[in-house]
Design brief:
The chain has 144 residues and is an all-alpha fold. The protein has helices at 13-30, 36-62, 67-89, 99-122, 127-130. It is elongated. Bound molecules: fe (ii) ion (2 copies).
Length: 144
């Protein structure tokens, strides 16, 4: 079970509220059985679509330098959850139990690296209006 500990706070209120929803949606999958697993998976997929769209928009609007790497992780995760849903529908309900541990580890790493860097970047005055405050590395590098 994933717990939202203080080190998972990014300091960006909107992002942190979304992350609290992610924790609830992920934990809910292990708390249900039968057809309710699909309902819980749909909730997680809907959450990921909305939250990733929000972060992606923030990165695009602010010309966030390592946007490519961050977008790539979002796409990988949402495709993983969709694939788990497809397999549950295809008769492998037990595979839903693998999501909790896998995405808990991913979430902790992602939030403390990519999301934390994004939150710090967005907190710089005027960054949304004026684009990058400082030149940063492209791709998966972090801002200088
Ligand atoms: Fe992210
Ligand atoms: Fe996030």
């Amino acid at each position: 079970m994933l717990t939202l500990t203080p080190e998972l706070s990014t300091g960006n209120g909107e992002i942190d509220r979304h992350h609290a929803d992610f924790v609830e949606a992920l934990n809910a999958i292990d708390a249900v059985e039968g057809d309710d697993v699909l309902v819980a998976l749909d909730r997680l997929i809907a959450h990921c679509e909305a939250h990733f769209a929000f972060e992606n928009e923030q990165m695009e609007a602010s010309h966030f330098p390592p946007i490519g790497c961050h977008l790539g992780e979002h796409e990988m995760v949402i495709e993983t959850v969709r694939e788990v849903r497809r397999r549950v529908v295809a008769g492998q309900p037990e595979i839903a139990r693998s999501l909790g541990p896998a995405l808990s580890e991913w979430f902790s790493n992602h939030v403390q690296s990519m999301d934390a860097v994004l939150a710090r970047y967005l907190a710089q005055p005027g960054v949304i209006e004026s684009g990058p405050v400082q030149a940063g590395a492209a791709g998966c590098g972090l801002p200088a």
